[in-house]
Amino acid sequence: MIDFDKHMKEQRMLLDSDQPRKGHEERFLQKLERETVQTPVRKFRFRHALQVAASIAIILTSAIVLIKQNKSGEKVAQQEIPAAMMEADMYYTSQVNARYDEIRDFTFDNSEEKAVLLDELNDLENYHEQLMSDLESNPDDDRVINALIRHYQIKLEVMDQIIIQLNQVKKETSKDKENESV
Question: What gap in Å lies between CA 35 and CA 4, rounded to an integer?
C-alpha cells in the first residue's frame, strides 16, 4: 500500500493538469476521421421496398387462403351488418388511413420505390373490399367478422413495421448527412 501511495504522489502532477498531453487533439481527430470513413452509408434501397412488398403479398395470400377454406356455401341475402362491427370498421379504417398518410408523406430517394410500396398497400385495400362484400352477404358469420378484424390487425402491424423501417432509414440518412457536413 505504501508503494501505491508513493506512486500516486509522484504521478499527481500528471493527473492534476487541466490540459491534455501534447498530441492528444491530433490523435483524437485521427480516430474520429477513421470512424467517419468506416461508417457505411445506408439509404432506402429498392431491395427494402421489395422485401416489404413480398411480406405484404405473403400476408395477403395467406389471408385469402384462410378465408376460402373457412367460407361456407350458404349465403344469406342482404342482412344488416351488426352495429358493433360497423363501429370496429370505422375505428380500424381511421387507424389504417392515418398510417397510410404517414407512409405517403415520407420522402423517398426513388419515386418508383414509393409507388411499389403504395401499390402493395392498395392491394391490401382490395382484399378489404372483398371481405366487406362477404360481410354484407353473411353479416352473422363469425368467421367473416373474425377474418375482417384479423385483416385489419395484420394490416396495421405491417404498416407499423413499414413506418419503423422508414424512420430507421430516415434517422440513418440524417446521421450520414450530419457526418458529411462535419
Answer: 37
Task: Report the predicted TM-score, pTM, of the whole model to 2 decimal places.
Answer: 0.52
Task: List the one residue out of 132, 104, 106, 133 whose CA is nearest residue 120.
Answer: 104
Nine-digit cell string for 89: 370498421
Higher pLDDT, 97 or 14: 97
Inter-residue contact 148 to 131 (CB < 8 Å):
yes
pLDDT at position 44: 63
**How far, in Å, CA of 86 to CA of 95, rounded?**
14
Q: C-alpha distances in angstroms, 54 versus 5, 60, 82, 118?
A: 67, 10, 34, 13
- Cα 17-18-19 angle, rounded to 5 deg: 95
Q: Whats the size of the chain, residue-wise? A: 182
d(CA 15, CA 51): 55
Alpha-carbon span 100 to 8, nearest angstrom: 64
Determine how many CB atoms are found less than 10 A away from the CB of residue 60: 19
